[in-house]
Amino acid sequence: MSTDVRLQATRLAQPIRQTGDNLATLGMHVTFYCRTIASIPYALTRFRKHVIAQISEVSFGTQSLLSGGGTIGIVFAMSLAAAMMLGVETQRGLELVGMTTMSGMLSAVANTRELAPVVVAIALSAKVGVGFTAQIGAMRISDEIDALDSMAIKSIPFLAATRTIAAMVCVIPIYMIGLLASYLSTRLVVVVFNGASAGTYDYFFHLVLTPQDLLYSGIKAMAFAMVVSLVHCAYGYYASGGPAGVGAAAGRALRTAILSIGVLDVLLTFALWGLVPEIPGMGV
């Protein structure tokens, strides 16, 4: 009887223990994020060469751009494909209500406020972020991080803060290339393939597109880059279990980063454009 009671108590305590472990892990990651953000000025002053090296690797990669080594080509291709589908569905939807002249307006709003920042964030997470997790995780399981600490080199500024700075710096030109690709792709589908009026499309596009929207969109892209870098660096920093553990950490980091991008996208959209967004130049 006592054995059965003990087993039942163990089963009942397991969810509580699991919840406690999850909360401890969450606290560990939040502490890592705070320490990384706080150490950014220190990294800028002490590890400038390492920051420049990380910027080069994030932008162009260690291989040639044509072979997919860098993030620029990936973002350009993803933006072309996503904006092309946006143009197709926009044209189809507006044709149903007889408002195809508004396609330029929807292109300016959707590409600028939502599509381009999210695409560049997902590309950074899948290409750059997973690389961060793998690099730092490999250093963790081979005791290189402990070696850095033993040499009085602060590991979080050296490994995480430098990569966060590089991601935030590189995301702006990469984002602008992706945004340009989105604009060109949507216009190509609507004007060239579907035969819409180029003058009407351009009129509503420039009427709605404002410098404020571009600024807010860039802020979203930088916020996404910072979150992606922090999440992936944290999972790599606390990786364990050998090479298999690093691979599992990379997968968990990617899932967490994509979920964080979705939640943060909604919060930033409401914070920057309000709960009831206005369309410039349209009076609505």
TrEMBL record:
One of its GO terms (molecular function) is phospholipid transporter activity. GO terms for cellular component: ATP-binding cassette (ABC) transporter complex. It holds the Pfam family MlaE. The chain crosses the membrane at residues 65-88, 115-137, 158-182, 188-209, 221-238, 258-276. It comes from the Bacteria. Keywords: Membrane, Transmembrane, Transmembrane helix. This is ABC transporter permease. It comes from Rhodococcus rhodochrous.
